[in-house]
Design brief:
This protein has a domain at 21-83: 2-Layer Sandwich (Alpha-Beta Plaits), CATH 3.30.70. It has 4 helices and 6 strands. The radius of gyration is 14 Å and the shape is globular. The longest helix is centred in the N-terminal third of the chain and has 6 residues, at 5-10. It starts with a helix and ends with a strand. It has 93 residues and is α+β, with helices and mostly antiparallel strands. The protein has helices at 5-10, 27-32, 39-42, 67-71, and strands spanning 13-15, 22-24, 48-51, 54-57, 77-79, 87-89. The structure holds iron/sulfur cluster (2 copies). Residues 22, 42-45, 47, 62-68 line the site of one iron/sulfur cluster.
Length: 93
């Protein structure tokens, strides 16, 4: 049987920078203009959450896959790689 996504995520290690490398450009667009709020569903690490009628970003768990940047229909996510030395490290095997 293959490893579950939880098992695979367990292999990842994070060196978290204090500043987020992800930012929502205009929070009002998320609430007023974005019906599907795809970021809540496409992120494999559950980084985006709807909390108190706004989208919050738990950037510490980001796997740097880039899906949210491409998947946001309003191009409302500013996305940078974390500062050198920070972010996720993947271990295989
Ligand atoms: S998909 Fe984009 S516009 Fe929609 S809620 Fe998420 S970040 Fe906001
Ligand atoms: S880059 Fe990937 S893991 Fe990081 S927040 Fe976006 S969808 Fe989630």
């Amino acid at each position: 049987m293959g490893a579950s996504i939880e098992d695979k995520l367990f292999l990842d290690r994070f060196n978290v920078h204090e500043t987020s490398h992800l930012k929502i450009i205009d929070g009002a667009v998320c609430i007023d203009d974005c019906e599907q709020q795809l970021c809540l569903y496409i992120c494999p690490a559950n980084v985006y959450r709807l909390e108190h009628n706004r989208i919050s970003i738990n950037y510490e768990g980001c796997l740097e896959c880039g899906s949210c940047r491409i998947g946001c229909p309003h191009l409302n996510i500013e996305w940078k790689f974390p500062t050198g030395g920070y972010g996720v490290r993947h271990k295989f095997g």
